[in-house]
Amino acid sequence: MAFEVKMPQLSDTMYSGKIVVWHKKEGDVVNRGDALAEVETDKANLQIEAFYPGTILKIIAIAGSTTNVGEIIAYIGQAGEVVGASPSIPSKPAPATTTALVTPAAQPRNTISTAEAAPAAVIAGSERVKASPLARKLAEQRNINLSAIQGSGPAGRILKKDLDETNLKAPSTRTAVAPASPAASTPLATPATAAATHEATLGTGAFTPFSKMRDAIGRRMVESVTTCPHFYVTTSVNMKETMRLREFLKENAEYKGISINHLVIKAAAVALKNERRVNRAVRDGQIYDPAQINVGIVTAIEDGLLIPVIKDADVLSLRDVIFEARAAVERARAGRPNATDLTGGTFSISNMGMFDVENFTAIINPGQGAILAISSVKEEAIVENGQVVAGLRMKATVSVDHRIIDGVMAGTFLKHFKQALEMPALLMGT
Questions:
Q1: Do the Cβ atoms of 3 and 52 come closer than 8 Å?
Q2: Based on the number of CB atoms within 10 Å of its own CB, is 168 exposed (0-12), middle (13-18) or buried (19 or more)?
Q3: Which residues does residue 395 pair with via DSSP β-bridges, in sequence order?
Q4: For residue 159, what is the DSSP state?
Q5: Which of 171, 207, 242, 410 has the smallest set of CB atoms within 10 Å of its CB?
Q6: Of the listed 198, 262, 402, 416, which one is catalytic?
Q7: Left, alpha or beta for 33 (phi > 0: left; psi -120 to 50: alpha)?
Q8: Strand ranges across the sheet with 387-401
Q9: Going residue by residue through the chain (430 aa), what tens digit of pLDDT does each one get?
Q10: What residues contact 281, with CB distance under 8 A and at least 6 apart?
Q11: Would you give the end-to-end CA distance of the chain in angstroms?
Q12: 120: DSSP letter
């Protein structure tokens, strides 16, 4: 019996994926877990793995084609089995077809025909060129052969800046309007001439197309602020004891690489365990209470943001939180998250403490009910037992969806979050 290999949903925001390259070909024998293909999503390039052992009988979605989530891209079965009669690679160009896909914002968009071939600039011969999604998109638009570019990213990965450094810039789509001669007569200004004069004053500038990731971020954030009524609650945390704990633990090999963010993740998990209503979301017009507490870590990368998810953060030990978070963030920053890193989040944390930020608010990730914004730890005067002493303070602001989370719930969450950081022995349990 032949098994269908379908385009998986590799992130919570993925609705279609582009096959960048197949690692296997028709007739190859594969085992469960083998990498079949690399897929470009709106977030990153991810691997599709085989869920069944057998022989690849037919590849439906050729390299370069875009396929909706859930559509068949290949068949795996016993050697000699016969599946669909349509050829995997057409001998002549097939008519372009599009499939409407409704996004959460209820806006249809079209996918690319599966007959569309992969750009030669992206793949040189059989060797896969390592490049970020934005770099590949720019290379396609500018007709740049990526195999001729030396990448500065991890393992020689080509980044956007590598294309900029070669002075390979897209042609300008504007035409500068020359200013009128001083001796010329000045006609009555119209809106059109006023706009042209204003543009001439500003100069032509440069245009950069939205990357798939930046386009996805834009759509998701607009969806969030237009459908989800945000409100914000802030608390100030005395970080003295937490910082002492960190200094102590980082000398222990089991806690290698421990950061303030790891302690914040664990504290948030403790708080969510005590106030699970902040872990909820709106799904299909109903209140959805997840069975797990899965904390997403908002991570900045070259092209935008990724949110790797720490599953079951409330039952993990602090040591395991550190290990899982470090590995997931490193994969995200290298542009190589695994197939489960970006799915299943129920709550998110955005930490800008490393940028000397005093306070900020974050936008809720659609599909979740809340997000926590973490600011810098700052030295300031505080009052302890009626005495003014030097202390360490950190502000934390939770943004919540007011449709399902009220002020009491948000306040209770922050109370437990603050308590866990001011009494960090609470962070050492599960």
A1: yes
A2: middle
A3: 236
A4: -
A5: 171
A6: 402
A7: left
A8: 230-238, 387-401, 370-384, 347-351, 295-297, 309-310
A9: 789 999 998 877 788 889 999 999 999 999 998 999 999 887 778 889 898 899 999 999 999 999 999 999 999 999 988 886 443 443 333 333 333 333 333 333 333 333 333 333 343 333 467 787 777 877 877 778 887 788 877 677 787 778 775 544 444 333 344 444 444 444 455 555 555 555 555 567 888 888 878 888 898 899 999 999 999 999 999 999 999 999 999 999 999 999 999 999 999 999 999 999 999 999 999 999 999 999 999 999 987 899 999 999 999 999 999 999 999 999 999 888 887 899 999 999 999 999 999 999 999 999 999 999 999 999 999 888 899 998 999 999 999 999 999 999 999 999 999 999 999 999 998 7
A10: 287, 288, 290, 346, 367, 368, 369, 401, 404
A11: 45
A12: T
Bridge pairing between strands 66-68 and 16-22: antiparallel
Instruction: Indicate if 230 belongs to the active site.
Output: no
Domains along the sequence of the chain with CATH: 3-103 (2.40.50.100), 119-172+211-227 (4.10.320.10), 231-428 (3.30.559.10)
Place of tokens 């079965």: 77
Pairing, β 347-351 against β 370-384: parallel
Reading the block at residue 97, the tokens are 């077809």
Amino acid in the structure at residue 351: N
